[in-house]
Amino acid sequence: MPDRIPDREQLTDLLSQQWEAIALLVADLDEKAWRRPSPLPGWTLFDVVAHVVGTESWLLGQTPPPHDPLRPKTDVRTLPHVRNEVAVLNEIWVDRLRPLSGKRLLALLDEVTDLRRAALAALDDDAWQALTVSPVGQVPYGRFMRVRLFDCWMHELDLADGIGHPVAEGGARAETAFTELTLGLGRAVVKGAKAPEGARVTIDLTGPVTRQVALAVTDGRGVLLDEADSEPTTLLRLDSGLFARLRGGRSTAEAHLDEIAIEGDVDLGRRLARNLAFTI
């Protein structure tokens, strides 16, 4: 299944909407609420927004603020949830922004995302299609921006779960984010679930994002299919919100076994449910 470069104007608009959704979600938090834990290890609600601010600032060519010499210095590489260089940069931005108030961080989010909107609007088609380094390797800049939408959308869910305020989890932003959520499923099927050669797997998402994801194991690889080509060896049926949280490592299958229906090879289905996570 080929992956097309996202439409520039459409994705830019969705990113703008996503940033607005995050800002609206945290707009009324008091300073104590900003420091509540999020679903992400080691991060508060403040830290989640600081991460968004830091990443978008980095994309503008900015560097993290200098370390305050009056604060203890943290070696972010020693944190248990830091597993790669991308995570190191994320943690540096978060750590340097922590001394700010929530109110100031929210103002900074507005400032940075306004600059990013202007930068994206100034891009031409050549720049949108140009190869660039990203967390998913060297890809066209437009694909990188879809990764950014996915990341920000996931963090909206983190904030909503941490605050205890449900948000709409369907619509165009979610549909676009789900493209990133499903692209790497072949690895989960083969490396995680140990599906045998020739196996067929279907993941049936019941909403608010509704779709069937079909995969085949061919030559030792899990391949996304445009549509199922035979009866599945195993079928998982669950809602898209739970799927997103399992794929994002925010929860575990064991905590939700009664919410995941499995048909066909039950053992294979359970192995897949337990190995969906690809990021945290």
From TrEMBL:
Entry's Gene3D superfamilies? dinb family like domain
Q: Which InterPro entries match?
A: DinB/YfiT-like, Maleyloyr_isom, MDMPI_metal-binding
Signal sequence range: none
Q: Give residue ranges for domain Mycothiol-dependent maleylpyruvate isomerase metal-binding.
A: 16-160
User: What Pfam families does the entry give?
Assistant: MDMPI_N
Molecular function terms, GO-annotated: metal ion binding
- Name the record gives this protein: Mycothiol-dependent maleylpyruvate isomerase metal-binding domain-containing protein
List the lineage, top down. Bacteria, Bacillati, Actinomycetota, Actinomycetes, Mycobacteriales
